[in-house]
Amino acid sequence: MTISRLTIHELHELLVKKEISAVELTREHLDRIQKLDGDVKAYITVTDQLALEQAKAVDAKISAGESIGTLAGIPMAVKDNLCTKGINTTCASKMLDGFQPQYSATVVHKLQAENAILLGKANMDEFAMGSTTENSAFFATKNPWNADCVPGGSSGGSAAAVAADLAVYSLGSDTGGSIRQPASFCGIVGLKPTYGAVSRFGLIAFASSLDQIGPLAKDVTDTALILNAITGYDKQDSTSAKYDYPDYTKALTGDVKGLRIGLPKEYLGEGIDPEVEAQVRAAAAKLEELGAVVEECSLPYTRYAMPAYYLIAPAEASSNLGRYDGVRYGLRVQAKDVVDMFCDTRKQGFGAEVKRRIMLGTYALSSGYYDAYYLKALKVRNLIKQDYDQAFAKYDCLIAPTAPTTALHKGQNQDPLALYKGDICTIPSNLAGIPALSLPYGLDKNQMPIGVQLLGKAFAEPTLLQVAYALEQNTTLTRLKPNQGKGL
Amino acid sequence: MKYETVIGLEVHVELATESKIFCSCSAHSFGAEPNSHVCPACCGMPGMLPVVNRRVVDFGMKAGMMLNCDINRVTTFDKKSYYYPDLPGAYQTTQWFAPVAVNGRVDIETSAGKKSVRIKQIHMEEDAGKLVHDISEGTTHVDFNRTSVPLIEIVSQPDLSSAEEVEAYLVRLRTLLRYAKVAECEMAHGTMRCDVNLSVRPAGSDVLGVRTEMKNMNSIEAIKRAIEFETARHIDALENGTEVLVQETRRWDDAKGKSYAMRNKETAGDYRYFPDPNVMPVVIDDAWYEAIQNSVPEFPEVKREKYIALGLTEYDAERISESIMLCECFEEASEACGNPKEVVNWITSDVMRILNAKKMTYEMLNLDNQALGKLISLTGDGKISRANSKKILSAMFDDRSIDPEAYAEANDMLIGEQNDDMILDVVKKVIEADPKSVNDFKNGKEKALMALFGKCMKELKGNCDPQQLKVILLECING
Question: pLDDT tens across A348-366, in order?
Fold first, then answer.
């Protein structure tokens, strides 16, 4: 068996037993990146030197007989909107091409403290705005299952790297589905944690009230292990939650007997690919078979989530992206005066989708429109939260599609509005701040992976992992690998 | 026709917290190297997040209480967006929707009588950086030292009607905020700045006229001149139709004594206020509220009355209550020595003289007030001569840790208890050595006694109660 196919927990065993070394494992991944990433294009930056140094340090620990954590020596990738000290952090934007922060994100520190091996920085839609990774200012990433398809987005590089075994796991960020949808398109597990469970310090903001960092992994156990490392209160992030974060691996019991699972009807039917819906229902049936109680339920305000999201997220983005003015860092286009410098820098530095959202957001916050748009959107957001509160009074977990379809073909969707609609299943949980997990569950007729989404109330990550793990243990539909002939 | 002027003020005051409002950089960079008090957060680097400095909220609340405001127990921070090179995030974090304090009142007194000026609100916000223009190179540099230094903006209702009232209001604000020890309020340092909103209307009318705003005024004298000028300009426009008044922002040129309309580009703005999602609403619970309430000092009037009751003259009571530092000095020293009248004499003479000589303001007074009380007692008890006590006080200004008794002892300034004999010895020696002066005195030359007295005092190195010395000297001369 090729070691690059293995999971964190499998590789950890091998490292501890000294059957492989961290350097070998890292080399294997770097070799694969060199061989394959010219096609996949998952990475913007590969940190090979650093990765090998980190691996040597882990090997030294192992030879010295020191005990190592589960993530130690395991190579991984980080989305390029997470700050890494002294390493290019571009947000896949010309605006930040060559930008090297003087600091690292809290999650990066946490993984470094676990002796994780950083392979590089993963491609993404510019400033995390998009759902195909085609909005990267540098290049599009391909779906390892089918090179003609997109990997999803915005964490498309993070998802493709894991699916193509160019990293054992990765970190992404999810503002409206940007971890879960690419995980679904690439046939891996992706989790958006509860808002506040993972520090956003060092995450380059898109929409601060929605952004959340989370793992993309090969299986549910790995997801729990990564979550153990990255969750926690951080005084540098005021929205970080003080909470007694559990050991998430304890949730991996395989037992779902008596769990109450809701199947919200608003996430099914019109607009959802029948093959996707069929797999969601199949997963629900499987859970029933395993002893869970499954019922159809309703979240009536779901249909207002998309318009609310596309006011709130662009509004926050328009403000968060104001700082890219050419004065202090990143791109500066010289001009005759400072106002022209601002304008030309932003004109040349941002891509079309980013500009579109800045304009939408600026409009929504403009004097005279605030009440009609932004304030109303906040009210809708509250109603959506109430929807979930009511549902979780009855159910431990909800099951739904992650995305209405499987991976889109490249350039298939040029209409932004149609693309926005693809976020319909993922957006409401960002608005409510609740955790949601995408689990691969079978393939469609084109041999492309289908994702099933599990949603829980705030801090119910253990429940989501428990349910996902039960499905993983009791079917062959969750650990999928791209067909090498068709894919890459 | 008779006109009246309607004035409302927006006063920006820099809060005297140690660190900035959303990061741990020092907030005190007056005169420092450019960009020496900065970090990735206050420079608006990508991925950085604000963390509210709790002391800023303490100070904001306390300022609100000093101005009789209601405190919003849930107070929020909002983003005000505009592009300017000295504003690193392209937004200023301020309070738009739920400012820390609202509905206050400041009482003033002028030649026109007493008046209450209503306070609309006090909000906390961050300051911007500074542009430094290098004319020789034709370049502009940005200094972010001041970025994110905490400010409060105190917004009054349009209740003021003359330059005199504005002055009284500003002085009163300054006194109250200094009393609360939340701000320096030194216009010359830029720690207090003022925007003046002014309109004119026929006397007695309840319709407001066209309002103009003059921004960033930084001296009370300039503000007074600007108000006089603007009032005259408005009246002239209304009376003689010299120009059409428009609502606008104007710049006051104090050197020329004129106000000028600013270009539209500099004033037009849609600030797109919205709540900052990175700063959680600040919830002020009862314990926090009460702790701040308990730290609010008595008002100047209350102190003045108390001092008069202690036997101080109205003049002295007024002078002391002008500054919280003098009040504390007076109260603590009186407590230590039990003689308020003596303390006030010391403060109004020696303490103020030294402050003057050192070019220090009352607010810079940093004496150990209890030690001052002790010094006053020792002097009163004749343990230290008046001359030496002045030297000790001067030393205490430079070193707060000095204990006057220990210092006097270490420097041979302590007058021993049974040293009548020693004085007598000295006096005898001096008389013996200078029979001429003794004779002169006996022949009616009063000055000769002073010469002898001086010589004795010199021999005794000043460690002697002058009264006691005089008695012994006279006894010896007169046999």
Answer: 999 999 999 999 999 999 9
> What residue segments make up the domains of chain B, in order of their start?
3-286, 300-410, 420-477
Q: Look at domain B420-477 and name its CATH class.
A: mainly alpha
Q: Name the residue with tokens 């080399």.
A: A27
CA distance A236 to B478: 84
- 3-state SS string for chain A: CCHHHCCHHHHHHHHHCCCCCHHHHHHHHHHHHHHHHHHHCCEEEECHHHHHHHHHHHHHHHHCCCCCCCCCCCEEEEECCECECCECCCCCCHHHCCCCCCCCCHHHHHHHHCCCEEEEEECCCHHHCCCCCCCCCCCCCCECCECCECCCCCCHHHHHHHHCCCCCEEEEEECCCCCHHHHHHHCCEEEECCCCCECCCCECCCCCCCCEEEEEECCHHHHHHHHHHHECCCCCCCCCCCCCCCCHHHHCCCCCCCCEEEEEHHHCCCCCCHHHHHHHHHHHHHHHHCCCEEEEECCHHHHHHHHHHHHHHHHHHHHHHHHCCCCCCCCCCCCCCHHHHHHHHHHHHCCHHHHHHHHHHHHHHCCCCCHHHHHHHHHHHHHHHHHHHHHHHHCCEEEEECCCCCCCECCCCCCHHHHHHCCCCCHHHHHHCCCEEEEEEEECCCCCEEEEEEECCCCCHHHHHHHHHHHHHHCCCCCCCCCCCCCC
B279: chain A residues, CB-CB within 8 Å: 238
Q: What is the mean pLDDT of residues A57-80?
A: 97
Annotated catalytic, A238?
Answer: no
Active site residue A4: no
Q: Is A154 one of the catalytic residues?
A: yes
Q: Which pLDDT band, with edges at 50, 70 and 90, does B442 fall under?
A: confident
The residue range of the domain holding A418 is 3-266+277-298+386-474
Say how many domains are in chain A.
Answer: 1
User: Chain B within 8 Å of A200 (Cβ-Cβ)?
Assistant: yes
Look at residue B416 in the predicted model and tell me its pLDDT.
66
**Which one is catalytic: A136, A178, A184, A318?**
A178
HSE (side-chain half, CA atoms, 13 Å) at A151: 40
Say if the Cβ atoms of A319 and B272 lie within 8 Å: yes
Instruction: Tell me if chain B has a CB within 8 Å of the CB of A334.
Output: no
Given strand B101-110, what is the order of strands in its sheet?
A: B70-71, B101-110, B113-126, B150-156, B3-14, B192-202, B212-217, B248-253, B258-261
How far off is chain A from B89, nearest CA to CA, in Å?
Answer: 4
pLDDT tens digits for range B335-382? 999 999 999 999 999 999 999 999 999 989 999 999 999 999 999 888
C-beta atoms of A362 and B83 within 8 A: no
How do residues A265-298 score in pLDDT, each as one tens digit? 999 988 899 999 999 999 999 999 999 999 999 9
In chain A, residues with a C-beta closer than 8 Å to the C-beta of B273 are 365, 370
**pLDDT tens readout for residues B203-244:** 989 899 999 999 888 899 999 999 999 999 999 999 888 888
CATH of the domain at A437: 3.90.1300.10
Q: What is the mean pLDDT of residues A480-488?
A: 60
Residue showing tokens 């009482």: B107
Contact B277/A at CB under 8 A: yes
Q: What is the mean pLDDT of chain A?
A: 96
Mean pLDDT of A38-49: 97
pTM over 0.80: yes
Nearest to A26 by CA among A53, A2, A45: A53
Residue A357 lies inside a defined structural domain of this protein: no
Coil vs helix vs strand at B303:
helix
Work out the minimum CA distance from B26 to partner chain A, whole angstroms: 17
User: CB–CB of B280 and A209 under 8 A?
Assistant: no
